[in-house]
Design brief:
Distance between the termini: 32 Å
Radius of gyration: 18 Å
Structural class: alpha/beta
Number of strands: 10
Helix content: 25-40%
Strand content: 25-35%
Shape: globular
Largest sheet: 6 strands, mixed
Strand order of the largest sheet: 6-7-8-3-9-10
């Protein structure tokens, strides 16, 4: 469904992604695990196309030179040069790290902003679904986003991404800074979204253990390179991976 081959991203003199090849098949949850600065967010920016916008802004401001090479294919079509807005219209939707909701807008306003690509009927149906999978948001629909807890903001960020009608959802470290109880609830929601809506999901995390039960296939990143891949069973049976990423 979505596949990157030989993907490389250079920031001036720093290599952020080094010849990465990654794929996510239809109705699959793919995990990408790695320490801070391993390249997880850069990968998500590259897949979503946002890296092209970052590159353009740097060029216009005379800032850091960014080079992107390799191939990204979606539904067997090359999208390497496709703008992020056009990728979004095709169903590639990013839920960024650290939520990045509109903190001065209400929960309902945030969700409606996320539904700009949806038809009125799609928006209504998806809004009902978001309130079903995250019932706390329905009770808080008139609350300003900046007054939500971290967990509530993450629910809102995922809900806003769902409003954009994704076919493949990119979740960049959705569990960051949240309590184990909230992490468990969000991981359960991720699985339900895949099972009920048939949305393919790529999820990045520093620690794999909370996400492991729902991941079908995973990649390990180190210093911008994919050093290992396999099913959750294969990775869990590797003692080095268990120690470094699963906390066992």
């Amino acid at each position: 469904m979505l596949e990157a081959t030989g993907l490389m991203v250079f920031y001036e003199n720093m290599l952020a992604l080094n010849n990465i090849s990654i794929r996510c098949s239809e109705n699959q949850i793919t995990g990408v695990f790695g320490a801070n600065s391993a390249g997880k967010s850069t990968l998500m920016y590259a897949l979503s196309g946002i890296m092209l916008d970052i590159k353009k802004k740097e060029e216009m401001s005379g800032g850091e030179r960014i080079t992107i090479t390799g191939q990204i294919r979606y539904l067997n079509k090359d999208i390497m040069d496709l703008k992020p807005s056009k990728r979004a219209k095709k169903g590639i939707i990013l839920c960024p790290e650290r939520r990045r909701i509109f903190k001065e807008s209400s929960v309902l306003e945030n969700l409606r902003i996320g539904g700009y690509l949806a038809t009125p009927s799609q928006a209504k149906k998806t809004l009902d679904y978001v309130f079903t999978i995250f019932p706390a948001l329905k009770k808080l629909k008139n609350r300003i986003g900046g007054f939500l807890s971290g967990g509530e903001q993450q629910m809102l960020a995922i809900g806003r991404a769902l409003m954009a009608q994704p076919k493949i959802l990119l979740l960049d470290e959705p569990l960051l800074g949240l309590s184990p109880l909230v992490q468990t609830m969000l991981v359960r929601a991720v699985k339900e979204i895949r099972d009920e809506k048939k949305i393919s999901i790529i999820i990045t995390e520093q620690y794999a253990r909370p996400v492991l039960p729902v991941v079908d296939y995973a990649f390990i990143l180190e210093n911008g390179a994919a050093v290992m891949e396999g099913t959750r069973e294969e990775l869990m049976n590797n003692p080095d991976v268990r120690s470094a990423y699963f906390g066992v």
